[in-house]
Every structure is written in structure tokens, then in C-alpha cells.
Amino acid sequence: MRHIMVMNAKGGCGKSTLATNIASYFANEGATVALADYDPQRSSLDWLDRRPDNRPEIAAVAGFEDGLRHAPRNADILVIDAPARSHGKELTNLVAHAETIVVPVLPSTIDMQATTTFLGELRSVGKIERKQAKFGLVANRVRDNTLIFDDLDEYLTNAKAPYIAALREAQNYVRAYTRGLGIFELPEYLAWPDWDEWEPVTSWLKSKRSQP
Length: 212
Description:
Blueprint: E1 2-6, H1 15-28, E2 33-37, H2 43-50, E3 58-62, E4 77-81, H3 88-95, E5 100-105, H4 109-123, H5 126-129, E6 134-142, H6 147-157, E7 163-168, H7 171-178, H8 188-206
Parallel strand pairs: 1-4, 1-5, 2-3, 2-4, 5-6, 6-7
Helix pairs in contact: 1-2
């Protein structure tokens, strides 16, 4: 079973949005997928509660301490929505359950500063140091042609980590979430710009570059 974790110690950066869309992407690719929600807000599990029966099934896994014990053993991929404010021992324990980590970053000075601290701590985790897990960065909820996106783009380019993609701020994510769908399950005429932006993310996740 492959473990893909979406995490950043900074809250409100869109971890659940990325986790649910990654899970739905692989489910629609024919993989057996489980989605673990370790965040007390339960945003990913709330999304699963809304998911229509006629869409590819995604198994729900709740809880941190013993949650993975309840993950389906036949799952090909387990996507983990990590909690915010994870530091120290908790961060080390979380990373122990992942081979691939996706770090979303919002276009704000506060988020960039917080991410600098988080990446420094993440790099110090033994599993990352030993290259037994890999991580990549995603600019999230961006607006093109804004000064703050230019700042974020430069920051991530110079972050000495894979800068995978930039995802725009769009109502399509709200439309999809409220219906229990992923962005890939919306009509093409509506969501094709977002599909194009996600292509580098899905390509990276399927490549050896994202796996130890």
C-alpha cells in the first residue's frame, strides 16, 4: 500500500482540498483508495459523507492513534490528510506513515514564513534525511498576475525542494467539495483549466521522483 500524505503545520492552507482531489483522482484511475483524516475538523471525512454512490468508492479511515489499523488491507493507495500544527514528535510520527508528502502553500507572507519553519523541521526528520520519504511543494489558491503570487512563485522556486505546480483559486473546488466530488469529476467544459493545472501534480505523484 502506498501512503501519500498532505501536510503543512500552517492551518488553512488547503490540505483537505488536495487530499480529497488526490484520492478521487486515483479512484477514477481504477485504484483501490482509502482516505485517512487526522484533522479534528474532519473536512475530508465530511467530503466523503457527501460522495455519491455512483462514483468510485473511497474508504474512510478516521483517527490518528489507531486509524491506520482500520485501513483496508486491499487498498492500493492511502491518502492521509494530516492535522495542522504538527511539530516535534507528532511530526516525526506522521512522516513515519508516508512515502510521499505534498505540502500546499498559500500566497501570503505569513504562510511563506510559517512554511520556511515547517520545511526546516520536516527536513530534520530522520526518514526525510535518509531519503525514505520524499516531499514536494504546491502553490495553492493562487491568482495569476498578482504581486503576492509572484512572491510565492519565487519563494517556492528557491525553496530547494520540488516545486510541483500552482493551483488557482476557483469556485470549482467549492462546487466539487460540496457534492463529494473531485475536480476531475466535474464536467470538462467547466473544469478543464483546473485539470491542466493538476497535470504536473498527478504526473509527479505517479513518477519515481515522488517515491523513495
